[in-house]
Amino acid sequence: MSEQNPYETLGVTEDASFEEIQNAKSRLSQEHQNDTKLVETIEAAYDSIIMERLRMRQEGKIKVPDRIRFPERSIEVPPAVTPLNPKASTGWLQNFLDNPSRSDILWATGVFGGLAILTLLSQSNGSSFLPLALALGFCANLYFLNRKENRLGRAFLMSFVGLILGLLLGGVLSQFLGTPVGNGGIRPAEFAELVTFVFFWLISCFLR
Q1: How does DSSP classify residue 207?
Q2: Residue 60 carries which DSSP code?
Q3: What is the pLDDT along the chain (208 residues), one digit of tens a residue?
Q4: Cα–Cα distance measured from residue 115 to residue 96, given in angstroms and rounded to the nearest whole number
């Protein structure tokens, strides 16, 4: 085969298509895969034809399909990596956060602050105001949230979660801090209710 020209080595004519040349090269390489030197001769003949046709294309004599692999194009280009969109990753959080106005903060502070004061005063008066104050705080939080988005179901769920978290955290903190009972100290139930009002204030002001 070494005395033959590249086309004769591959067993194709000079006007053969690129598909025919590639098929001939693949078939001969497969048939003579155990003969290293012969496979190298086949590869060299293929590269010689491709280089010749590349030169002819550059001279405008023929048109070579872009999918043809030329020897000088053997470097693989790594696939482009699509960067993460930080806006998309934090979009769900932005749906819950709110930028309250000064009026919103003052209204929430007045309502929950007033309920907190009434809760503290109820102890000295000996009245059972705690359940009523907690219900009023829940309704106030529900109102403030629903006014922002007009989504009652979502506002109710967020208010309920705030209620549960506030009572749980308040109960844990009262035990951890050793909240005094009697003699002017804040009872654990009152302390838990005050923590719940803080949760309600944060939710009604900064969530929606």
Answers
A1: B
A2: T
A3: 446 788 888 888 888 888 888 888 899 988 888 888 989 998 998 998 888 888 888 877 665 555 544 444 444 555 666 666 655 545 656 677 888 888 888 998 999 999 888 888 876 555 567 888 889 999 999 898 888 878 888 889 989 998 999 889 888 888 887 655 444 567 888 888 889 999 899 998 888 7
A4: 25
Q: Which of 105, 88, 87, 89 is nearest to 206 (CA)?
A: 105
Exposed (0-12), middle (13-18) or buried (19+): which is 79, by Cβ within 10 Å?
exposed
Interacting residues of 129 by C-beta distance below 8 A, sequence separation 6+: 118, 119, 121, 122
> Whole-model pTM?
0.52
Q: Which residues contact 152 (CB under 8 A, 6 or more apart)?
A: 142, 146
- Which residues are registered as beta bridge partners of 180? none
Q: Are 32 and 39 in contact (CB under 8 A)?
A: yes
Counting Cα atoms < 13 Å in the Cβ hemisphere of 21 gives: 23
For residues 6 and 48, is the Cβ–Cβ distance under 8 A? yes
Q: Is the dihedral of CA 99, 101, 102, 108 positive or negative?
A: negative
- CA separation, residue 163 to residues 37, 38, 46, 148, 195 (Å): 82, 82, 77, 19, 9
